[in-house]
Specification:
Blueprint: E1 9-11, H1 17-26, E2 35-37, H2 43-53, E3 59-61, E4 66-67, H3 69-79, E5 84-86, E6 91-92, H4 94-103, E7 109-111, H5 123-128, E8 134-136, H6 154-159
Parallel strand pairs: 1-2, 2-3, 3-5, 4-6, 5-7, 7-8
Length: 165
């Protein structure tokens, strides 16, 4: 992997500190990299370097990743010319998703299906994504309050039997 200066595509099954260190160390040698598939990762750590080093980069897949404003900002400022973006199963801040839809104008494929914290019927999201030929958001839901860690008190569940009636 490291001695492939003409590498065009890389798929990493599990993203961890070791894989991150390899990518960060060798990304400058992968000038032809066009496609990268990562597992759940921190996009704000890796997208700036990809944007600097890989001029032909068009396809990123990072399913099950948290996308907040910082991650979206890093993605938009570093890789605004992406054509294919797969973030299915992700956990989105709605403002972050809006930022991606407004900033990545070259997208022809965006998969955010089965994701959390926005509704697949959200009119604003659907309107902003209307220019993307292959937009997938089916099954995306707003996470119910009862799944929020702040809503459920661990002590109530473990020590207070009256919580269950």
């Amino acid at each position: 992997m490291c001695r492939c200066p003409r590498l065009k595509g890389l798929a990493v099954g599990s993203y961890n500190e070791f894989i991150k260190s390899i990518i960060v160390k060798f990304i400058s040698k992968w000038k032809n990299l066009e496609m990268l598939r990562l597992g759940k990762c921190h996009l704000k750590e890796i997208t700036p370097e990809i944007g600097i080093q890989c001029n032909n980069f068009i396809w990123l897949s990072a399913p099950y990743t948290y996308i907040g404003k910082d991650e979206a900002s890093a993605l938009v400022s570093s890789l605004s010319e992406l054509k294919y973006l797969d973030l299915h199963g992700g956990d989105f801040e709605k403002d972050a998703l809006v930022m991606i839809l407004q900033g990545c104008k070259e997208l022809v494929h965006l998969d955010i299906s089965q994701s959390f914290d926005f509704d697949d019927g959200d009119a604003e999201i659907l309107e902003l994504a209307s220019h993307i030929p292959a937009f997938k958001c089916e099954g995306s839901i707003i996470t119910p309050d009862w799944l929020d860690d702040d809503y459920i008190d661990h002590d109530d569940l473990v020590y207070d039997s009256s919580f269950f009636g």
